[in-house]
From TrEMBL:
Lineage: Bacteria, Bacillati, Bacillota, Clostridia, Eubacteriales
MF term (GO), any: hydrolase activity
Keywords, comma-separated and alphabetical: Hydrolase
Top-level taxon of the source organism: Bacteria
Naturally occurring in which organism (per UniProt): Candidatus Faecivivens stercoravium
SUPFAM superfamilies: Isochorismatase-like hydrolases
Coiled coil: none
Pfam family, one: Isochorismatase
Protein name: Cysteine hydrolase
């Protein structure tokens, strides 16, 4: 059984840019250490918006341009970019169906996936969305979130998301 680590949206705009938080900066070295020591396949997601972001539904709800394709803010943080072995899965919205399809195909046509662990930002938006999406795509795999390697929009919303995921049979590690 293979193990997968999914690093969610650890991009400059979410760590040191306009949507960065002290908590995101704090987890960066922990995420880097986890990636370095992870024995299985590591996939990155990359929040990806176009120049017309402010005209999108998300842009109207969160009018802070971020992760615009091709900008420095869109790039994976340098501390993690050097560790990346595969092209990131670009995602235009919170949850990535592309990620689900890639992992379902790996499970069906390769070695079975026993466990998928998610780390990254934001716990309460993209981490929870992808954890629940992967639960639907791979219902028999264990889906886990390493709480010590995640950061939410606020510490409170991080905790709320962890509780919600636990209720949906997502394993919460290092709480």
């Amino acid at each position: 059984m293979q193990e997968i680590l999914v690093v969610v949206d650890m991009q400059n705009d979410f760590v040191t840019g306009p949507l960065g938080t002290p908590e995101a900066r704090t987890i960066l070295p922990k995420v880097a250490e986890k990636v370095k020591n992870f024995p299985g396949r590591v996939l990155f997601t990359r929040d990806t918006h176009e120049e017309n972001y402010l005209e999108s539904r998300e842009g109207k709800a969160l009018p802070v341009p971020h992760c615009i394709r091709g900008t420095r803010g869109w790039e994976i943080c340098p501390e993690l970019e050097t560790l990346r072995k595969e092209e990131p899965v670009d995602k235009p919205t919170f949850g990535s169906t592309g990620l689900g399809e890639v992992l379902r195909a790996a499970d069906q046509y390769g070695e079975k996936i026993g466990k998928i662990t998610l780390v990254g930002v934001c716990t309460d938006i993209c981490v929870i969305s992808n954890a629940l999406l992967l639960r639907a795509f791979l219902p028999e795999a264990e889906i886990a979130v390493d709480a010590a390697c995640c950061a939410g929009v606020t510490p409170e919303s991080h905790q709320t998301a962890l509780r919600a995921m636990k209720a949906c049979q997502i394993t919460i590690e290092n709480e």
